[in-house]
Each structure stands twice: as C-alpha cells, then as structure tokens.
C-alpha cells in the first residue's frame, strides 16, 4: 500500500531536487510507527529520500526554511494547518522558492 | 581600442546624451505650454460658467480624448477612470527589468504622476531587458534616463525622480507622496523596507520579482489582506538568495511581470478589484504557464501590519535584518586566510611558469559562464553551491588527478582555483583541502572580475 501525492518545486527550489519540477511520489502506508502522513513527516521523508546535500537550503529545524512557500492543492499551507496537515491521496504539494530579482 | 578611438566614442556618447537631454527639455517645455494653455482655458471656462469651478478641472481636453480613446471606450475605464489615472500618483521602486516595462505602460496609460527611485546608472548589460533605457543613455542615472523615456511616450506625465537608494531614512518621505507603490527592486532588504513603508502609510503594494525563466507577483496590504511580512515573517538566509546578476533572467520574463504590475496598478487606480490581492501569481516561462494560489490572511501577529506592531515609523535596519546589502551586488566572502590565496598579479607570474611546474588549474564557474570567457590552460570543473553537489565536484577532481598520475605528473600538485568573483573558489579550496588532503591549494583573490581589472582588460565581463 502507498499514498501517492504530487510533489512540485518552483522558483529554483527544484535545483535541490535534480531540477525536476514535478514528480509523483509513493509514500508507504501504514507508516512504521502507525502515525499519519502529516506534512511534518513528509518533510522528513523528503530530506531522507530526495535531498542529497545541504538540507539547510530546504529545511530549518523540523520545518521549511524562510523564503520557501508551501502550497497544498493551490492553497497556502497556513490556511490548512501547516505542519499538521494530513496528506491525502492525489494531493499536490508545491514548494516555491521566492524570487527577489528584478 | 586605441586612445583616440576611445575618445571619439566618448565624444559621440556625450553628443548623443546632449541630444537626448535636449529632446527631454523640448518635451517638458511643450508639456508646460500645454498646461499653461489649459489653465487659461479653464480660466475662460470659469468665467463662462461661474458655478462650475470644480468641474472645469474634472474633464479631459481634446488631446486627452484622442490619446486615450481606447480606454474611454471601455466600460472598465471610461472618462471617470481616465480622470482617476490622471490624478493618480504611482511610485516605482527600481527602474530595472521590472520597473522599465511597468513605467512604460503606466506613462502610456495616462498616469498623471510617476515617481521613480533608483540609485544606479544605466549599464550596457541592462539593455537586454530594461527597455526604458537606451544605448545613448549608458552611464547616466537610471532615473534620468527613465524620465527621458517617459517624456518621449507621454510628455504630460509628471515624473518625480529620486536618484538614491530607498532607505530607512527617506522611505516614508518619498512614499507618502504617492497613492500606489510598485516593488520592482532586486533584493530582500529593499523589499522588506518598501513593505513596511507601505503598511505604515497605508498604500497598496504591487510586488513583482523574476529570475531566469520565472516570475512572481502579489499585491500586498490591500482590502485588509496580508502584507509581505505576513507571508515572509523571517528573511531568507542570505546565501540562499540568487540575484539576476548571478542566475540570469530572460528579458521577456521581467517584461511580462512588469507589465502585469502596471495592469494591477491601473486597476487599483481606477477602482477595479485588485486581481492579485492575497494571491500569488506564478509565471513559468519554460512551460508557458500562469498559476495562481490563494495566500494566507493577514497575520494578527505580523510585526508591521499586525494588531500590536513592533515596527513603527522609525523603521528598522533592513540590511542587518536580512543579513545582506540592499542591492543586487554579490558580497565578497572571506573564508580563506590571505596566505591561502594569491593575487591576480602573482597568479599571472605563476601561470607563465606553469609549463615547468604543472599546477592543476581549475575554473569552478558554471559551464555556461566558462563558455563566455576563460583563461588559457584552465580546466572547467563547476562548483557553484547550491547548484552543484560536493560529491560530484570531488569525484571530478579526483578523476583528473588520477589521469595526471598515469601521465607521470605529481600526485599532489599545486592547485589554483578561479571563479567569477573569488567566492566559490574559496569554498572549493576549502572542500579540496578537507576531502582530498591536497595541501597546496590556492584561489585567485577577486576572481576573473579582478583579473579583467588588473591583468587583462580585454577579458569580457558579464
Ligand atoms: Zn503583515
């Protein structure tokens, strides 16, 4: 069994992930500890499975680093519970690195 | 170029510049004459219609009707909207890639007063995207060039130029003279400063940004929605910020975002709903796709627009807050001690003797930059964190060492590293020392930019 979600990167965040802007990932369910796939757990999974080097460019502590916006199904994650949001099948999670150039 | 040719080019540039300034003067004089004529006309009207004094200024003259007819025919704008534009004052911070197209469209649309803030002068490398400037205006302040460009499109537009950086000291004084603000700046410190000034003075902020093939756009502090700080309470770590001078940007991408900023400002000015309030617009130039996302609400605990704000009219030290300067220039790193680096002059001597000493010469810039220009004898092994992995770089250097070894060259050679500015080369030197046990590693201080200043002025700089 697995939970399939779409993982997207934009604004340069994709450079940390082999420049792949969109991919479907399959998360194992149930999780070994029986807990739900919250975004908090998903970030750890991303760090352990997809980030090769310099996790500090993506994460700060157990959350996302300043300057990266998280959007779940086209909504700011702040509107739906941030780290505690529980992923559902077919969710799209987009990480946008904010641009400052002009 | 010979000295006389250089001088001739300079004379030519000055003649062009004087020509442009004369054109600006003529346009301003024409605008003044028109305004004076209108005052006289109003005066006559007032005498004809003694009761209609207020209405006399509230109409479009024949010229305006002809010029803005395509607006006047639209339900969304019409005469009322055009008059609102005429009385609107819009400030654009940054006359660069975003500010140029925004200013062009705002001036053409009939915005009565445009303010332009920029501390920089026009440079040749601006012209690829900063379409308000021109070859003849290279070297003059961007705000002056912008005023000339605007006058050529719409001489009736009043331009207020601020040839300085926006700072904690001047921001409120400048912003308070305008109704709407466009953030067309290029660095986080300035973006926080503009946001705070707009919140404190209660001005809507149309904020755009662009890099490489992508652009982003949001309108902040409007209709009770969030401000920039609500979305980004903490600044990004300085090393994670890529500016256009390092990452590049496609001119048409800044054009699209800048024009969208102008559109949003025009709509706010005429009283139409702001499309990008509490929305993030993402433009992906590679895919040719626009996407739009709903952002969070205003945060009651926001430091500037919250219920108990901590940022007041004194503002704060934005460079300290962001840990980076309020410009898009890349700061110099000081990682290595002076004896771990060599100057360009010493490097030149070392390279001349290189045929006998066989040092390992590595240029760590990204391949695209290496393709623009490079020093002879240098091999390109890119190392540009965060876009390259440490392991890849080490493996490539190791492979090179192995190949040299089988060719009978020393296994632990002297290594000379170079990059564009002498930052990444320091990081690479540190990495090679700690992982491959190479002890004779130096980098060229100041990189190729310094090389082009001190050794070879013909080396193209980008
Ligand atoms: Zn706020």
Q: Can you tell me about this structure?
A:
- Chain B: One of its GO terms (cellular component) is cytosol.
- Chain B: Residues 355-460 form the Rhodanese domain.
- The complex is a heterodimer of chains A (102) and B (462).
- Chain A is mainly beta and 102 residues long.
- Chain A has one domain: Ubiquitin-like (UB roll), CATH 3.10.20.30.
- Chain A is 11% helix and 32% strand.
- Chain A has 1 helix and 7 strands, in the order E-E-H-E-E-E-E-E.
- Chain A has one helix at 39-49, and strands at residues 2-10, 22-28, 59-60, 63-64, 68-72, 75-76, 92-97.
- In chain A, the strands form 2 sheets. Chain A has a 5-stranded mixed sheet with strand order 2-1-7-5-6, with no helix packed on it. Chain A has a two-stranded antiparallel ribbon with strand order 3-4.
- In chain A, strand 5 (68-72) and strand 6 form a beta hairpin.
- The mean pLDDT of chain A is 94.
- Chain B is of the alpha/beta class.
- Chain B has 19 helices and 13 strands.
- Chain B has helices at 3-48, 53-57, 62-67, 69-72, 78-86, 99-109, 142-153, 171-175, 188-201, 228-231, 244-247, 251-270, 318-322, 344-352, 354-357, 367-372, 390-406, 424-436, 447-454; strands at residues 89-93, 113-117, 158-162, 180-183, 205-211, 214-220, 279-284, 289-294, 341-342, 360-363, 379-380, 415-418, 441-444.
- In chain B, the strands form 2 sheets. In chain B, strands 3-2-1-4-5-6-7-8 form an 8-stranded mixed sheet, with helices on both faces. Chain B has a 5-stranded parallel sheet with strand order 9-13-12-10-11.
- The structure holds zinc ion (ZN).
- Residues 226-227, 229-230, 298-299, 302, 304-305 of chain B line the site of zinc ion (ZN).
- Supply the number of structural domains of chain B: 2
Shape of chain A: globular
Ligands (ions, cofactors included): zinc ion
According to CATH, the fold-level topology of chain A is Ubiquitin-like (UB roll)
